[in-house]
Specification:
alpha+beta, five-stranded mixed sheet, 8 strands, disordered N terminus
Length: 415
């Protein structure tokens, strides 16, 4: 059994970087400034946001990142260039998100959770767009700390988006693609922005240490999937035991000691979501009597020339054919609410849902029951050209095929 006791979950939406403490001496989160910038009005939208959003953005590739973060190349000059790149790019990318929010139906945009996200982006845009030109190393250090504040302030954006969408979807039930397309763009952009920002923080930390410690920016050059599986199994097992009293275990086969280049937090999120779903299905299918052994969840690892492939197999009863396409919708959840229509609950109500009962109290599970787990995992897989496919044998079990591009091969779009 691969459980590693005492492992705490990792928040994949917050940087885990040693550049500086996220809290000041008082223990409170650092903010942009003592007084927030004024909120953007209609004239700002016309005169500032729209023109900025129409500017072209430059693409950062994994090949460029590898070259840039080489220990022989990394220095104050190259880090200054990276900060100057972000100084140009971030306002454009954030402005596009503000324009997307402004194009939502009025009643959706009025949702307090979505409005809170809009205000966060508005504040970030105002601060970064007006930030002074970065010319010296000291300028770069101050700007990098400002970016760390950005990550702090936006840590809960995904949860706010999920809550806002679940509360608003009834108003656009006639056209659900409005919210799905909005979230596709918003969350894909968020992933890219966070990669850029966390990469700057990581490179700064690497410069301070004098080495990359096996990383090229945010990319781990020799990531071992087995280690990540062990950690995620510990989290899923704990959740399952808390709810049902016992849990299945994992059996690994294939290239179990394989290594590849990838961003660890992305793989952690994907595996955490898929293992929670598989564990829950097995327990609910085979009973919750701790005295009865449960069939294992099997994971097969395979690496080819360009990608890592994982197959996660369970015998948890599978997914009904009519429900399978809904798994990829941002507006679909397995937790029924009194406001949901008959087509919105899949596998029982909140009382029967392990994620609804457990994850909401877990540090690693604020999205439970909000419908974002599977589409978010799919977006992480596809971001670098990979894929997530589900093959279900209804009445028997489910196979999830995860294909992740090896980022050390080729020049993949990083952000």
């Amino acid at each position: 059994m691969l459980v590693r006791k005492g492992v705490l979950p990792r928040d994949v939406f917050r940087t885990q970087l040693p550049l500086r403490q996220h809290c000041g001496a008082s223990g409170t989160t650092r903010r942009w400034s003592h007084t927030s910038p004024p909120k953007l009005g209609f004239e700002d939208t016309v005169n500032i946001i729209n023109p900025t959003a129409q500017k072209r953005t430059r693409v950062l590739t994994t090949a460029a990142l590898y070259k840039f973060s080489n220990s022989k190349e990394l220095g104050e000059k190259s880090l200054l260039k990276s900060a100057q790149f972000l100084h140009r790019e971030l306002p454009v990318r954030i402005a596009r998100r503000l324009v997307d929010f402004q194009h939502l139906p009025f009643i959706v945009g009025c949702n307090p959770h979505l409005r809170q996200v809009y205000d966060l982006y508005s504040e970030a845009f105002t601060t970064l767009d007006k930030y002074p030109v970065i010319q010296t190393h000291d300028d770069q250090v101050r700007y990098t700390e400002k970016l760390a504040d950005y990550l702090d302030d936006h840590m809960n954006v995904i949860t706010l988006l999920a809550k806002g969408v679940q509360e608003s979807k009834r108003y656009v039930a006639h056209a659900p693609d409005i919210l799905n397309r909005f979230l596709d763009r918003t969350i894909s952009s968020r992933i890219g922005i966070r990669i850029l920002v966390e990469n700057q923080l990581t490179l700064s930390a690497q410069l301070e240490r004098g080495d990359g410690n096996g990383y090229a920016g945010v990319i781990c050059k020799a990531l071992k999937p087995r280690d990540v599986i062990e950690m995620m199994e510990g989290i899923a097992s704990r959740m399952c035991r808390n709810r049902y009293g016992h849990s299945p275990h994992i059996e690994l086969d294939g290239d179990v000691d394989v290594e590849f280049s990838y961003i660890p937090a992305h793989l952690e999120y994907i595996l955490q979501e898929l293992l929670k779903n598989a564990f829950r299905a097995v327990v609910e299918r085979h009973g919750n009597n701790p005295a009865v052994p449960l069939p294992p969840v099997k994971i097969t690892l395979c690496r080819n020339d360009v990608a890592l492939v994982l197959r996660i197999s369970d015998v948890g009863g599978g997914i009904a054919p009519e429900m399978l396409p809904k798994c990829w919708s941002w507006t679909f959840t397995t937790v029924g609410t009194e406001d949901d229509g008959p087509g919105n609950a899949v596998i029982g109500g909140a009382a029967d849902n392990m994620l609804g009962a457990i994850c909401m109290s877990e540090p690693d599970g604020p999205l439970a029951g909000l419908g974002f787990g599977m589409p978010m995992s799919k977006m992480y897989c596809e971001y670098f050209g990979g894929s997530l496919q589900i093959q279900s044998m209804h009445g028997y079990g489910t196979d999830a095929y995860v294909t992740l591009t090896n980022l050390s091969h080729g020049a993949h779009r990083l952000a």
